[in-house]
Amino acid sequence: MDSFEFNKIAAAVLVTILLVIGVKEIGNIIFHVEKPKQSAYKIEGVEVAQTASTEVKKVEVELPKITPLLASADIEAGKNVFKKCAGCHSVDKGGANKIGPAMWGVVNRKVGSHEGFKYSSTLQNYGKNWTFEELNGFLNNPMKYLKGTKMAFAGLRKDSDRANVIAYLNSQSDSPAPLK
Ligand code: HEC
Predict the structure, then answer these.
(1) Does the pLDDT at position 163 exceed 80?
(2) Ligand 1 pocket residues where CB is under 6 Å
(3) Which of 79, 119, 162, 173 is the most buried (most CB within 10 A)?
(4) How far apart are the first and last CA of the chain?
(5) Is the separation of the CB atoms in 127 and 139 below 8 Å?
(6) Cα-to-chain-centroid distance, residue 123
(7) pLDDT at 31 over 70
């Protein structure tokens, strides 16, 4: 077998593997499609991966608004979800900054504004407040929503998890916002 033929076979095998991964990990591929320059799947010379993921992109659905889900959100369940965050964030009143900024009163707080925490320039310069919908987008996929954030957390893909944890965060405040 000459090396040209070998390359053809190798390419065919690679393409098959990529397609299988593509089907299995649709979520990941959607993530990568939007930032193809940073794709973790980038392999020199394999154009097919790009084509495959472009086709999958059509599957993507827009993130639903969280506000309608908050009225029926479960604050206790949100407290439980927050265990995933607690390694990096305190949530109690007067709590200290840890790996991430303190969460007491974070709802409607200006993004990147907690005293004494050294934020990424992304958060520092964002200029918005942590409304329910901003939290929804960020917590779904932090590194995609605010590219350059140093919050190394994959995100909460379940709508109910985000609704519950946002309702919980809202409750951890001197002046919780109305949920409906
Ligand atoms: C591995 C540590 C880590 C985990 C886990 C983590 N975070 Fe973070 N979080 C951070 C860091 C670091 C920042 C600061 C990001 C920056 O400056 O870009 C941050 C920032 C935030 C902010 C912005 C706060 C502000 O003052 O602007 C919110 C809101 C937030 N995290 C919520 C959560 C929630 C809710 C969870 C759990 C579902 C969570 N985080 C899990 C590390 C983490």
Answers:
(1) yes
(2) 84-85, 87-89, 99-101, 106, 111-112, 114, 119-120, 122-123, 130, 135, 139, 149-153, 156, 165
(3) 162
(4) 69
(5) no
(6) 14
(7) no
pLDDT tens by residue, 81-132? 999 999 999 999 999 999 999 999 999 999 999 999 999 999 999 999 999 9
Task: Please give the Cα distance from 143 to 150 (Å, whole number).
Answer: 8
Q: Are 156 and 139 in contact (CB under 8 A)?
A: yes
Gap between the Cα atoms of 167 and 160, Å rounded:
10
Between the CA of 136 and the centroid of ligand 1 the distance, in Å, is 13
Tokens of 157: 């893909």
Token readout for 23 is: 């089907």
Q: Which atom of ligand 1 is nearest to the CA of 112?
A: 27
If one residue of 151, 168, 170 were mutated to test the ligand 1 pocket, choosing by the most ligand atoms within 8 A of its CB, it would be 151
